[in-house]
Write a structure and sequence with these properties.
223 residues, alpha+beta, Nucleoside Triphosphate Pyrophosphohydrolase, nine-stranded mixed β-sheet, two-stranded antiparallel sheet, 11 strands, 23% helix, globular
């Protein structure tokens, strides 16, 4: 994995070469990634729920922390659409590319010691509910799935709350086990708050558009 070939980019986003994954993170080269968030409006609860993966403790970086629902690197020879494999591999959910809502490209940085992760992130949203029993997690990558309301996560990111409630499941000995707990900002991979705030805003705007389209379609059918 560390020898995977990634395209690298300059500060303006222009492709300028290829480097191994290990070199990219050692030297802090900008590179492309694919992020997919699962979030949906729950009509019964009246809330929007946002899903997080619990990174496996076996992961080299940020093991045991909550993170983006599904994410991964785009290899130098791949298209952005190829990134959908991350959803299939990590979550075992067979979503198609045309079912995702594009949320644009964001620049994000994660720096921890000698690990320098500078990403040009292609962000997508899957806006339909996914039942817990649909997930088939890749155990070496993902140990569980949790969710919180979007408003609670926003309050945590904006320092309006120090803890929020999440619920979901963990996988132990191949079995899903329901789990709920209180978590703080330190329980998440340390993405910049500004980055997460922008993600939250884009998810909120996109879901409003999706709901508006649904209501409009239902109105046309009734007429």
């Amino acid at each position: 994995m560390e020898n995977e070939q990634l395209a690298i980019f300059d500060d303006s986003g222009k492709r300028c070469g290829v480097a191994t994954r290990s070199e990219v993170h050692a030297k802090g080269f900008w590179h492309e990634t694919f992020h997919c968030w699962i979030a949906h409006h729950d009509g019964d609860q009246g809330d929007v729920y946002l899903y997080f993966q619990l990174r496996s403790n076996h992961k080299k970086d940020y093991g045991g922390l909550l993170d983006i629902t599904a994410a991964g690197h785009i290899l130098s020879h791949e298209t952005i659409e190829d990134g959908i494999r991350e959803i299939h591999e990590e979550l075992g959910v067979m979503i198609k590319m045309n079912e995702l809502e594009p949320l644009g490209i964001l620049k994000g940085e994660l720096i921890q010691g000698d690990f320098i992760d500078r990403e040009l992130t292609h962000v997508f949203l899957y806006s339909k509910p996914v039942a817990y029993d649909v997930f088939r997690l890749q155990p070496e990558e993902v140990a569980g799935i949790y969710r919180s309301t979007l408003q609670d996560f926003k309050a945590l990111v904006q320092c309006e709350k120090t803890e929020i409630e999440v619920e979901g499941f963990i996988v132990e000995e191949g079995e899903q086990k329901y789990s709920s707990k209180s978590v703080s900002y330190l329980d998440f991979v340390p993405h910049k708050r500004s980055y997460l705030s922008e993600i939250i805003d884009r998810i909120s705007s996109c879901l409003k558009e999706v709901q508006g389209t649904i209501h409009s379609t239902h109105g046309q059918r009734r007429s």
